[in-house]
């Protein structure tokens, strides 16, 4: 059965979702009974979170009395909170434990959790709960990522850690610090599981140079808005995962027409429907990723992530929209004819450059550029934190002319985001 075909569980989920105002209005012109998810409109992130900010009850199907309320790394003026009941969180954690085992963790592993703690602690909590719910005993060492890399390296040595879990940026800095201190990577370390951002091949090669024989795998394709979406098994290359069929339905669609893409090798926009989330349903939700199928249809179908969709971008472990930056630039009083974001990696740090083509009559100045950066860091708080942690280089603004902007080789249009990582 295709990922978008209706099952009894999906039919029940759609009926349930109509209880909240957001889906009731979204589905006002949709038939009561649909034969496939493709007959329902996509959930656009901007519209969804605008409804949430207007009144969270519009997107909830009941009162939130247990479980967790999780924050994502969006703008401070536009908070995104994910509401997960206790029952839902337990299901996500059990699925997460299987993802960790599929990625290579095993009986008796001492697992160093290097995910972020604090207000944006979803990954930390997810790995913590997944280790605790594993069907084989493992020991978690909740180290976090706030300590200096040199201190974390000392902890890893002291605790004889077997496996590390964290974002590629943090993992790379910690292993580099360890190798700098001791001339080589940790002898006890056998496995490295990454999440939160994509791992580049050159990063993986460098990590294996520090720790020869190191096994590297994804801890799972997950996001705060949804939960766990896909798992990696030994057959998965970097960027590949298998659909977690018991928890989600995935669709890849043409971003312009919305037509479902079922053929392997054809890129498109990834939509996710959660079969677990009922307090705050997510049906055909635009997660902001591009992907393509790698295998024919079937349970646990393999797909490959291809980076962020054009209107979305990421920096370190934070995910944002192009509109976030447009709002900041306008708030700074800058009128532009065009705007382009350049995201790159330099060594172990990621970098964001905002290229601005001024509108006619708009004065260019270093002060205005600094104002844009100041407002950006005030609104996108995760970036400020990652700069302070040394994971991201200081953000810069470049005034330029239209000819300086990168065009799509296929369509000849100006790209919104140029990501060279």
Automatic annotation (TrEMBL):
AMP-dependent synthetase/ligase domain location is 72-273
**Which Pfam families does this chain map to?**
AMP-binding (PF00501)
The cross-references to PANTHER family, in alphabetical order and at most eight, read: BLR5969 PROTEIN
User: What's the protein name?
Assistant: AMP-dependent synthetase/ligase domain-containing protein
Q: Which organism is it from?
A: Plesiocystis pacifica SIR-1
